[in-house]
Specification:
This protein is of the alpha/beta class. About 35% of the residues lie in helices and about 15% in strands. Strands 4, 5, 6, 7, 8, 9, 10, 11 and 12 form a 9-stranded mixed beta sheet that branches. It has a 3-stranded antiparallel beta sheet with strand order 1-2-3. The chain is globular, with a radius of gyration of 20 Å. It binds magnesium ion.
Length: about 400
């Protein structure tokens, strides 16, 4: 088996929404294909994946550095022992040849999109959904094939913020979601408290509502928000301070008794080790949101899980950032705590496909081979362009 071709197309995110720091209307995502010489039903078996939501496409890095390294490798050097599948760890090592450690930046997402396409490919070669391939490769015996899911949204829109937020969460409730996440930090504290109170009218209880500040606060601002939010008994408080300032995270936690969530902007096992050593995270309540699509793919994510295991943090505490099909397969395959969903936003990548079974605040992937991206109608045009 050989790689015949590696491709990338840059796909803009649809929508014009903002959190405390970022407007997503300029954001793009890299959709990547690995085309093999294996032919089934008259077509080459092709792995497809993308880096995650919330950063930018990586076409330049892929075409200039990572594609040429894989295409120059001896084909058999990238295969597993059976010779019938690719070994994603070997793909990762080959892509990272001649790269210094640390300072991950955009290359972490570029390598992730590429490495994840090989997981999709392996699952298609075995004609099974990717979560089964992922479980087997990681020695995981699944207890169930669905995971907890919550609806993330609550961005800042023009108009009456409380009424808009209430309407938005009511729509999610009508779709069957019973837990929600909203943004904070894009308004002043009093306005955000009013928004949280409005959201609680729909959520019903703090345990069904999380808030996300996207790393916007100074230590002092975070302390003021901690004091104001603590009485609500929220599901979690996400990214109060800069995600790489672990001491700020520790100080925030000292003033906040409820659950805290972070990790979506950590891109390596070494970053996570530092969070566990210095960030004050508590094994009995806090949530970790590292995202394989932003952090070199599943090979590095496996190393991150090993760090978590070694420090005594259970996999149920992991809720990967992203809210898309790839992370749903990863969450089910590795039996993580759950995943997020962005109903109606971050298209064409956000959300799941109609065949994914949702209900009772849980969601299950479909039985389509691989990540099933071809079954998501919103992705059809971009995949068609990728494979044209
Ligand atoms: Mg977040």
């Amino acid at each position: 088996m050989i790689i015949k071709e590696l491709r990338e197309v840059t796909v803009p995110l649809r929508g014009n929404i903002s959190n405390a720091l970022v407007n997503f209307s300029e954001h793009t995502v890299s959709l990547v294909a690995v085309v093999t010489d294996v032919v089934r039903n008259g077509r080459p078996v092709t792995g497809i994946a993308f880096d995650s939501i919330g950063r930018y496409a990586q076409g330049g890095l892929l075409r200039e550095r990572f594609f040429p390294r894989l295409l120059a490798a001896r084909p058999e050097s990238l295969l597993d022992e059976s010779g019938r599948r690719f070994d994603p760890a070997k793909v990762h090592a080959c892509a990272m040849r001649n790269e210094k450690p640390g300072g991950h930046g955009d290359r972490a997402a570029a390598v992730a999109a590429l490495e994840l396409a090989f997981w999709d490919l392996n699952a298609k070669l075995d004609d099974e959904p990717a979560f089964q391939t992922i479980s087997r490769a990681h020695g995981v015996s699944r207890v169930r094939d669905d995971v907890d899911v919550y609806a993330a949204g609550g961005y800042y829109y023009p108009g009456d913020p409380c009424a808009i937020l209430r309407d938005e969460l009511l729509r999610y409730r009508d779709m069957g979601f019973s837990a929600f996440k909203m943004k904070i930090g894009g308004a002043d504290l009093a306005a955000d408290v009013a928004r949280v109170e409005a959201a609680l009218e729909v959520a019903g209880d703090g345990s069904r509502l999380a808030v996300d500040a996207n790393g916007r606060f100074s230590v002092d601002e975070a302390a003021a928000y901690a004091k104001a939010m603590a009485p609500f008994g929220l599901r979690w408080f996400e990214e109060a301070c800069d995600p790489l300032d672990f001491d700020a995270n520790r100080r925030f936690i000292e003033g906040y008794p409820g659950a805290v969530a972070t990790g979506e902007n950590l891109f390596s096992a070494a970053d996570v080790r530092n969070l566990l050593r210095f960030g004050g995270m508590r094994a009995d309540r806090d949530i970790f949101q590292m995202d394989a699509g932003l952090s070199y793919g599943l090979t590095e994510y496996g190393r991150i899980l090993a760090e978590m295991d070694a420090h005594g943090y259970r996999r149920a505490r992991l809720y990967p950032h992203g809210g898309h099909l790839i992370n749903l397969h990863i969450a089910v395959g590795l039996q993580l705590g759950g995943c997020e969903a962005y109903p109606g936003v971050f298209q064409p990548f956000g959300g799941y496909c109609d065949e994914c079974v949702a209900g009772d605040g849980r969601i299950a992937p479909s039985s389509a081979p691989g990540f099933g991206l071809e079954r998501k109608p919103e992705l059809r045009e971009a995949i068609g362009r990728l494979l044209a």
